[in-house]
Structure formats: C-alpha cells, structure tokens
Amino acid sequence: MALQLKWMGGIALVFVAGMLAGHLLDSFTHAMLPTASSMDNTDANGNADLSGIDELHKLDVRVTLMNSAKALQQEWADGAVRILQDARVDVGKPAIYASDVQSIAAEPGSAIVSYEPDIRDVRVAGDWAFEWGYFDAGFRQGKDKPISSMHGKLLRVLRRENGQWKFFRVMVMWKEDGKAEAPQ
C-alpha cells in the first residue's frame, strides 16, 4: 500500500510539473512572440515578416489551384515534413513531390477547384513562424465527377530560406462534405 501511494504521489508530481511547465511556456510565447493582429505586418524588430508570410499564403492558394506537383514545390522548405490524415508522412521535399505526383496520377482529372485558407494566428520568432487555421476547399475526384467540398484544420511551421518564407512542417486534417470544426 505504501509503495502504491508513493507511485501515485509521483504521478501527481509529474502531472503538476507538466502543467506548470506548460503554463510557463504558454506565458513565454504570449509575451515573447508577436501575433499577426498585434504587429501590423511587422515583427518586434520592424521587419516585414508578416507581409512575407502573406506572400507565402498567396502562393499556397495559387499553386494549390494549379493542381501541379511541380508548382507545389515552390512552397516547401528543404527538409520539409507533411503530415496528412490517412496517409504516410512525407519526409523531405523530394518525398512530398513524389507523393503529389502519385496522387495526381492516381485520379486522372481530379482537381482542387477552390481553396480558401483562414489563418487565425501567426507567431514569428526570428527565421521561424508558427500558424494555425481552417480551410474550405472544393474538389473533383475525377473527370466529369461532381464537385465536393471539404473543410479542415491546419497547423504549420514556416522557415525563412534565402529571404523567403516556406512551409517546413505541415499537418492537415479535413472532413469531406461537412465541417471539421466550426470556426470560433
């Protein structure tokens, strides 16, 4: 019984320590990392980081609607990782490209016909940025197929490479023909 109480006390201590560490990290990030709404397109150093990130967002919409694996490569950083639901993890820009080529070839005539991201928060920390948001998209699964809709959530880590922002880590979840989660 005494051993069981020590074990449970240890679990409680780890839990409390984890909660404290999480709170401290959250406080640090809120205090140290500027948000898109508080920065007016500049970071704490006066750099135009958010306008560069906005350019990446525009590129993302443009190349997504092109339905071209080659065009999509423009938005990925070297060493990027993409995690999509119900798919293998693509590690590295060449793996992301190969996966895109395979996906496009597997469903001839398929296409993303609309794509509207809704980025809710961007945090910049030097050559890194972190963002999350929602998206709505329309897609066709093949030639002469009807257009369906999907709604999803995304979490992305961006990295500045050669002066341009690129996606470095991306995780996306979606639901077809229904809301993944209502925006708050």
UniProtKB/TrEMBL annotation:
<dbReference type="InterPro" id="IPR032710">
    <property type="entry name" value="NTF2-like_dom_sf"/>
</dbReference>
<protein>
    <recommendedName>
        <fullName>DUF4440 domain-containing protein</fullName>
    </recommendedName>
</protein>
<dbReference type="Pfam" id="PF14534">
    <property type="entry name" value="DUF4440"/>
</dbReference>
<dbReference type="InterPro" id="IPR027843">
    <property type="entry name" value="DUF4440"/>
</dbReference>
<feature type="domain" description="DUF4440">
    <location>
        <begin position="68"/>
        <end position="166"/>
    </location>
</feature>
